[in-house]
Amino acid sequence: MEKSTDQFSYSVEIKSLNSKYLEVFVNLPRTLRNDENEFAAMVKKSFTRGKIELNIDLFDWNATKPVSINGELLKKYYREIFAVHKSLGISEPFRFESILTLEGVTHKERSSISTKSRRDIINSIEAVIKKTIDMRKKEGTALRKDITSLLSLIGSDVNRIRLLSKKAVEEKKELLV
């Protein structure tokens, strides 16, 4: 399931494999790692068996991350680079933007997820869990129908084998007499 919030777009996916015991795997982006136990508990509450893998991806961040600039380091880099530029007699103009890419000059803050976006993700997890349960029920119903049909065929074959075996025994007796 793919959706969008006011902050970003995201996808929530559950993979389910039949298994005797319940095993839950949760794959999250770094910004959601603190919620891993809660998301795993949601899955464990809804399933009793199987290998269940919950995958959440965040992409297309709408809000720009706050950026801070280390002014003192920027000035130091500028003075040093400008001095080298001048002393070497480089004719190309000095580009100020090149300093911004140097290590330590800029720092992007880690993105945090708003309460509303987090609630949207939780609602999506609940919806995907419900869809997965519904899909498993449909698969179970189809499997039951197939097994019942096959058992009926086996039952009719067993009856036919019984009749044929009785005839075979009688035919063998007649040959012996």
Keywords:
177 residues; alpha+beta; 2 domains; four-stranded mixed beta sheet; two-stranded antiparallel sheet; 4 helices; 19% strand
Secondary-structure-based class equals: alpha+beta
Instruction: Assess the beta-strand content as a share of residues.
Output: 15-25%
Instruction: Write down the Rg.
Output: 34 Å
**Number of domains as seen in the coordinates:** 2
Main beta sheet: 4 strands, mixed
Query: What order do the SSEs take from the amino end to the carboxyl end, as H and E?
Result: EEEHEEHHEH
Distance between the ends: 76 Å
**Low-pLDDT residue intervals, each spanning 5 or more residues:** none
Give the strand line-up of the largest sheet.
1-2-4-3
The averaged pLDDT comes out at 89
Roughly how much helix do the residues carry, as a percent range?
A: 40-55%
Number of strands: 6
| Tally of individual helices | 4
Shape: elongated
Describe the fold and architecture.
- The protein is α+β, with helices and mostly antiparallel strands.
- It folds into two domains: 2-63 and 114-176, no CATH class; 67-108, no CATH class.
- The protein contains four helices and six strands; from the N terminus they run βββαββααβα.
- The protein has helices at residues 36-46, 71-87, 97-100, 115-176, and strands at 2-4, 9-17, 22-27, 50-59, 67-69, 106-108.
- Strand 3 (22-27), helix 1 (36-46) and strand 4 (50-59) form a beta-alpha-beta unit.
- It is elongated.
- The model has no long low-confidence stretch (mean pLDDT 89).
